[in-house]
Amino acid sequence: MKGLLIKDFYLLANQKQMIFLLPIMFLLFAFVMDNPIFMINYLTIFIGLFSMSTISYDEFDNGYPYLFSLPVDAGIYVKEKYLFSTMLVVMVNLLSVGGTYLIGLINSSTYTASEILVTGGISILLALVFLSFGLPIQLKFGAEKGRLALLLVFLVLFAAVYLTVRFLLNEMQLSMTEFLGAVEEWSSALLVIGGIAIGIVFFTLSFFISLKIMGNKEF
């Protein structure tokens, strides 16, 4: 697994333009648009989605047969992809949270430390959810078909969540404004911890689904 991690980090290092642009975008939003909080979410989710691009490189030019001719099996490969994605998400999240806090001190920002931490926690949750769907879909359908399949899945998921919320609100005879007002009264820490717990459950289920997908593939 160590060799696979090194390979993927080398692939990441080769994306020099992306690595160069991300901190520039962060500074742009932080100083010019005075919205570093947005960049915590953007960078964390973006790097999570970007981490899946390593699967495309593995598929390229009949790469899977070569990889699996090495002492690597489907289980090790899937574990490495999930570990690599998680490492990137956490590292970029911590850097963006730390950067946002420091910039807030410089700019005397109105954002509090708790708001920044809550945003960081929510962005990790969102990244885990995206990866939970994206990784098995990418492994199942490949890079090209996987993008379309992922888009369709998120559209269906969004529609399902929206319709479910609307149905529950109608049953409880609440408006969306009243519901959001009630949510704001909940403890931020409780929301973040609960959300991350849900994300971990999704991530774990996704991992076992990916194991099954790769185990059924023939190279």
Overview of this protein structure:
The chain has 219 residues and is mostly helical. It has one domain (2-142, 191-215). It contains 9 helices and no strands. The protein has helices at residues 2-13, 16-32, 36-51, 53-59, 63-67, 74-107, 113-172, 176-184, 188-215. 26% of the residues are buried.
How would you describe this structure in keywords?
219 residues, mainly alpha, 86% helix, globular
Radius of gyration: 20 Å
The portion of residues forming beta strands comes to under 5%
Number of domains: 1
User: Portion of residues in helices?
Assistant: over 70%
Which SSEs are present, and which pair or pack?
Elements (H helix, E strand, L loop, with lengths): L1 H12 L2 H17 L3 H16 L1 H7 L3 H5 L6 H34 L5 H60 L3 H9 L3 H28 L4
Helix pairs in contact: 1-6, 2-3, 3-6, 3-7, 4-7, 6-7, 6-9, 7-9
Quick description:
The protein is an all-alpha fold and 219 residues long. It has one domain (2-142, 191-215).
